[in-house]
Design brief:
Chains A, B: Pathway: Amino-acid biosynthesis; L-proline biosynthesis; L-glutamate 5-semialdehyde from L-glutamate: step 2/2. Two copies of one chain form a homodimer. Chain A is of the alpha/beta class and about 425 residues long. Chain A folds into two domains: about 1-225 and about 395-410, Aldehyde Dehydrogenase, Chain A, domain 1 (3-Layer(aba) Sandwich); about 230-370, Aldehyde Dehydrogenase, Chain A, domain 2, CATH 3.40.309. Helices cover about 40% and strands about 20% of the residues of chain A. The first copy, chain A, contains 14 helices and 16 strands. Chain A has helices spanning about 1-20, 25-40, 40-60, 65-70, 75-90, 125-140, 150-165, 185-190, 205-215, 240-250, 275-285, 290-295, 325-335, 350-360, and strands spanning about 95-100, 105-115, 115-120, 140-145, 175-180, 200-205, 230-235, 260-265, 285-290, 300-305, 315-325, 340-345, 365, 385, 395, 405-410. In chain A, the strands form four sheets. A seven-stranded parallel beta sheet of chain A has the order 10-9-11-8-7-12-13, sandwiched between helices. In chain A, helix 12 (about 290-295) links the parallel strand 9 and strand 10 (about 300-305). In chain A, helix 1 crosses helix 8 and helix 2 runs antiparallel to helix 5 (about 75-90). The N and C termini of chain A lie far apart (about 55 Å). Chains A and B meet through helix 10, helix 13, helix 14, strand 13 and strand 16 of A and helix 10, helix 13, helix 14, strand 13 and strand 16 of B. Strand 16 (about 405-410) of chain A pairs parallel with strand 13 (about 365) of chain B.
C-alpha cells in the first residue's frame, strides 16, 4: 500500500508538465465533458453513495454527517453547476500581473503559472472531489485527491467518471486527476511527506484534520484555519444597519467560519442600542456572554470568561464586550482574532478608514457582514478554502491561489558585467 | 537567556501594530536619519569591526570569510547607499493590486499590507544588518535580526546606531528594529519556533543555515535555496550570443547562485559551435564534465557522472550535455533543476516562447544571462534573497515579498441571505 501514494504523486508530477501547457480551450472542453459525464452517471453515483450512506448509518454516524454525505439529484446538479461555473471563469494561467523594461533593455514579465501538483485532503462532502478536480485542471495543475473513508465508494465512483473522460482524450494526461483510494492514516501521512512531488497541499475539513496537517506536513501548505470573527459597532454606526449586520453575522449560519463570534460595542451605544440589539439576538435564540459593562446594561447576559474571547463557538452563542473606542477594538481583535474576517459598522469616515487599514485580518468588512468572506461571494466561483495565513494567499482562495508568479526575462544578448 | 528571544519577538509584534500604519513620509525620514547616523558613526563601526576581524583571524578563519566580514569605508558607503536606494523605492504598503465591485454593490479591494514581524538570520556580511532593517521598515514591518557570532561586535554597533535614531523619535517604536545579541544555537532555535510572533523568517546564508531552517522552523519561511542553473543553446541560436551568455553565466562570478552549472546544447550544434565554445571556456579556466556526445566532439572533457547533473559547483566547472532538442532540455531541467534561474539562447520564435512557458523555474531568461537573476538587476533595489519555492514569492525578492495582500470590502449595509 505504502508505495501507492508516492507513485500517484510521481505520476501527477509527470502529468503536470503536460497540463501546464494546455490551452484554456482544451481545459474548458475537458471540464464540459466532465460535467456531462457526471450528469449521465447520476444513477451510478447515487448507487455508490447509497453504499457509503448505509455503512455510515450502520456505524452509528451522526445524522448531520450522514446528511452531508448523501448525494441527491440536487447535489449532483450542484456539482456539475460548479464545474460549469469554473468553465466560465477566466483562466489565471498566463496572466501578466506586472513587469517592466530595465535600462539595459531587458523586459521583465511577472506571469501567472500553474503550481504543478495540488493535493487536497478533505472530509465527508463528495462534491469536493469534482470541485477540486475542476479547479486544479482549470488552473493547469495535476490534482491528487484524498477523501475520507466514509465517502470512499462515492469518491471512487466520481473519480472513475472523471478518469473515463481523461482516458478518452489524447491531449490530456490520464493522471491529471487521481484519487488516493487508500483511506488509511498511513496513506495520508505519506501524502503529507510527498516532498518534491506536491507543490501545494490544502486541507479541507475540521480542526482535527487541520491540526494533523499543520503538525505533520513537510510539503507546502495553505491553511484554512479557525474563524474567530469580530464585529465592531462604532459610536457613529447607523443603528439599524448595525443590528442587521450583527444578526446576519451571528444567526444566518452559525456553524461556518465566517460567522461572528464576538461583538465589540462602543461605550456610547451601551445604554441604548446594545440592550435592544441583545434583545433581538436573544429572540433569535442567541445566548449572550457579556463583559461587566455589557451585564450592567443587559443583566441577562452570562458572565464572559477570558476563554470566551478566544472561542470559535460555531453555535448560537455571542461574546459581547463594551470598548472605549476604535483603538481598544483593534487591540482586542489583534490579540484574540484568528485573522479570518472582521467587520466594522461606522458612519464616521475616519473611523471606518482606519479600521480597514489597522486590522490585520484576511478580510476586513466595512458596513457589511463577515458572512461575505466566501469565494463565491468574492466572485471566484468555487473556493478552495479561506486562508488564515499571510503568505501566498489571504482570505477566500480562488483559482489564482493555485498559481504562482514566474519571472520571464526577454533579452537581446545582454550579459552582466559584474 | 532563553526568555530573551521570545521577549524580543513579543516586543516586535507590539511595535508592528504601530509601524504598519506609518506614512511613507515618516518611514523615509527615519531611513534618511539612519543612513546619516551610519555615516557619522563610521569610525566607531570600524573599531567594533576590528574586534570581530581580530577574533576571526585568531580563530583561524579563512581569508575569504575574513574579507567578507571586514568593514571598509567603501562598504560603509555601500551600506548607506543601499538605505538611500530603499528610500527612493515606491512604498508597497497600501498598493491596491486588484479588486472589483460585485453585483450587490460590495466593493472588494485587494490591498498590500505589511506582514507584521520579519525575522532574518544571516551570516558574516555586516551590511545585512542595515539592509534588512531598512527593507523591513520601508515595508512597514518590525525587524528581528540575528547575525552570526563572527560579526557580533559589528552587528551590535550598527544596531546601536539604528536604535539611537529610533529612540530620538516619538512616532516610531523603539522596537521597530531589534538585534538578537545572543548568538547561541539555542537562541536561533527559539527564533525558529517563535510561532504567533514571527510572520516571516528569511535565512540568508549557505546550505547549512538553509537546511537548519528547513528542518526546524515552525514559523513561516521563504527559502533561498540552491541554484543549479541551466543554459539551453538551441539549434537556432545566434552563435556569438550563445558563447557570450554561457561564458558570462559560468565565469563572471562562479560562486553565486545565479551562475550556470549545466550547459544543454542542441545536437545540431555539437559538431561546430560546441567545441569552439568549450575551447573558449577552457581558455578561461573552466573544467568541462561532458556526456558521451560531448566527449565525441571534445574529447578533453572529463566524463560526466549522474551526480554532475545535480551539482551546484559554485566553481569553474561546467557540466555539458548534448540534447535532441527543446523537449529533452525542458525535461532535463525539470528533473535536475532547483527552480532558481534558467536561460535559453534561440532565434526561433516558437522555441523561445515555448521554453519561457514550459520551464518551471523562478526566472526564465530568453537570450540573456542567468546572472541577471538578482534583486538589483530586476529593479528592486536591495534584495531580501532569491526564492526557490513557489508559494508567496518566486525568484529575486524585493519589498513586495515582505507584504501580503488583504481584502478590504466596502459595503453599504449589505447582509447575506444564505
Amino acid at each position: 500500500m505504502s508505495a501507492t501514494v508516492t507513485d500517484i504523486c510521481r505520476r501527477a508530477r509527470a502529468a503536470s508538465t503536460v497540463i501546464r501547457e494546455l490551452t484554456t480551450e482544451v481545459k474548458d472542453q475537458v471540464l464540459r465533458e466532465m460535467a456531462d459525464a457526471i450528469d449521465t452517471a447520476a444513477e451510478d453515483l447515487k448507487e455508490a453513495n447509497a453504499r457509503d450512506v448505509a455503512a455510515a448509518r450502520e456505524a452509528g454516524t451522526s445524522a448531520t454527517l450522514v446528511d452531508r454525505l448523501t448525494l441527491t439529484d440536487k447535489r449532483i446538479a450542484g456539482m456539475t453547476g460548479a464545474i460549469r461555473t469554473i468553465i466560465d471563469l477566466p483562466d489565471p494561467v498566463g496572466q501578466v500581473v506586472g513587469g517592466r523594461t530595465r535600462p539595459n533593455g531587458l523586459r521583465i514579465e511577472h506571469v501567472r503559472e500553474p503550481l504543478g501538483v495540488v493535493a487536497v485532503i478533505y472530509e465527508a462532502r463528495p462534491n469536493v472531489t469534482a470541485d477540486v478536480a475542476a479547479l486544479c485542471l482549470k488552473s493547469g495543475n495535476a490534482a491528487v485527491l484524498r477523501g475520507s473513508s466514509i465517502a470512499q465508494h462515492t469518491n471512487a465512483a466520481i473519480a472513475d467518471v472523471l478518469a473515463e473522460v481523461l482516458r478518452a482524450r489524447d491531449d490530456v494526461p490520464d493522471d491529471a486527476v487521481q484519487l488516493i483510494r487508500d483511506t488509511s492514516r498511513e496513506a495520508a501521512m505519506e501524502l503529507l511527506h510527498a516532498d518534491g512531488y506536491v507543490d501545494l497541499l490544502v486541507p479541507r475539513g475540521g480542526p482535527s484534520l487541520i491540526n494533523t496537517v499543520k503538525d505533520n506536513a513537510t510539503v507546502p501548505t495553505v491553511i484554512d484555519g479557525d474563524g474567530n470573527c469580530h464585529v465592531y459597532v462604532d459610536a457613529s454606526a447607523d443603528p439599524a444597519r448595525a443590528t442587521d449586520i450583527v444578526v446576519n453575522g451571528k444567526t444566518s449560519r452559525p456553524s461556518v467560519c465566517n460567522a461572528v463570534e464576538t461583538l465589540l460595542v462602543h461605550r456610547d451605544l451601551a445604554g441604548d442600542w446594545l440592550p435592544k440589539a441583545l434583545d433581538t439576538l436573544q429572540g433569535l435564540g442567541v445566548s449572550i456572554r457579556g463583559d461587566e459593562r455589557t451585564r450592567e446594561v443587559w443583566p441577562a447576559a452570562k458572565e464572559a470568561q477570558d476563554s470566551d474571547w478566544e472561542t470559535e463557538y460555531l453555535d448560537l452563542i455571542l461574546a459581547v464586550k463594551v470598548v472605549d473606542g476604535l483603538d481598544e477594538a483593534v487591540r482586542h481583535i489583534d490579540r484574540y482574532g484568528t485573522r479570518n474576517a472582521e467587520a466594522i459598522v461606522a458612519q464616521d469616515y475616519d473611523v471606518a478608514r482606519r479600521f480597514a487599514l489597522a486590522v490585520d485580518s484576511g478580510s476586513v468588512f466595512v458596513n457589511t457582514s463577515t458572512r461575505y468572506s466566501d469565494g463565491g461571494e468574492f466572485g471566484y466561483g468555487v473556493e478552495i478554502g479561506v486562508s488564515t495565513q499571510k503568505l501566498h494567499a489571504r482570505g477566500p482562495m480562488g483559482l489564482e491561489s493555485l498559481t504562482c508568479v514566474k519571472n520571464v526575462v526577454w533579452g537581446s544578448g545582454q550579459i552582466r558585467v559584474i
